[in-house]
Design brief:
The chain has five helices and ten strands. With 211 residues, it is of the alpha+beta class. 15% of the residues are buried.
Length: 211
C-alpha cells in the first residue's frame, strides 16, 4: 500500500510538471530510484538497520554482528549450527554481491590492524541448512575487498568418489588462516595452505604444504 502511494505521488509530480517542462527519461528514472531508496531504507529500519542515524548500511550491519573470538577452527557443530551468526537481510546481501535467493548468515572477527573481517555462511541451493563458509575482508567504508572460502559444503556427487575429503580451517590469534584438505579414506593430510591479510586487505597465500 505504501509503495502505491509513492507511485501515485510520483505520477502527480510528473503530470503537474507537464505544463511547464516535460521530464526526460533520465529524470524520471532518477525519481523512481529515489522512491526505491525510500522503500529500501524503511525495510532495513524494520529489520534493525536504521539509516536515519547512519548513511552507511554496511557499517550499521557490521556493528550489529556478534563477534567470534580467536582462535577459531572447524568443528562439525560449528559448520552445522553456526553459533553467534546473524541472518543477513537481502538488501545487505546485495551490497556484498551475494544472491538474494539464498539464505545468508554472518558474524565478524575482532579487527586486526587496518582490516575488518566478516565470516559469511552461504546456504547451498536446494539444501536444508547446509552452508559453505567464506571469509570477507572489508575496506574503510565497510564494503568487500576480497573473500576466501574457508569451508565448502559437501557436494552430493562426492558420495560417488572413492576417496572422501574433509576441508578443515582455522584462524589463529595472529590472523593466520590455515586451510587443510584431509583424506578420510587415507587418514592423512593431502594439502595445507596458509593465508595472511596484506596491507591492501587481500588474502595472500603464504605457504603451501603437500603430503
Amino acid at each position: 500500500m505504501k509503495q502505491m502511494w509513492y507511485v501515485l505521488a510520483l505520477a502527480i509530480v510528473i503530470v503537474s510538471c507537464g505544463g511547464r517542462k516535460q521530464m526526460s527519461a533520465d529524470e524520471i528514472a532518477q525519481k523512481l530510484d529515489s522512491v526505491k531508496a525510500v522503500e529500501v531504507k524503511e525495510k532495513l529500519k524494520l529489520q534493525g538497520v536504521d539509516l536515519e542515524t547512519s548513511d552507511n548500511p554496511m557499517k550499521t550491519f557490521y556493528d550489529s554482528l556478534s563477534m567470534q573470538t580467536l582462535p577459531i577452527s572447524y568443528s562439525d557443530d560449528f559448520v552445522k549450527f553456526l553459533p553467534g551468526f546473524t541472518v543477513m537481510q537481502p538488501e545487505i546481501a546485495s551490497y556484498m554481491n551475494l544472491g538474494t535467493d539464498n539464505k545468508h548468515k554472518a558474524a565478524c572477527l575482532p579487527e586486526s590492524v587496518g582490516a575488518r573481517l566478516v565470516m559469511v555462511a552461504d546456504e547451498e541451493k536446494g539444501s536444508d541448512h547446509i552452508y559453505s563458509i567464506w571469509l570477507y575482508s572489508l575496506d574503510s567504508d565497510y564494503f568487500p575487498v576480497d573473500k576466501l572460502c574457508l569451508y565448502a559444503a559437501d557436494d552430493k556427487e562426492d558420495d560417488l568418489l572413492e576417496e572422501k575429503f574433509v576441508q578443515y580451517f582455522s584462524i589463529t590469534s595472529d590472523y593466520e588462516i590455515h586451510l587443510l584438505d584431509y583424506s578420510e579414506t587415507k587418514q592423512k593430510t593431502q594439502s595445507e595452505e596458509i593465508y595472511y591479510i596484506d596491507a591492501s586487505r587481500h588474502f595472500q597465500l603464504g605457504a603451501t604444504k603437500l603430503e
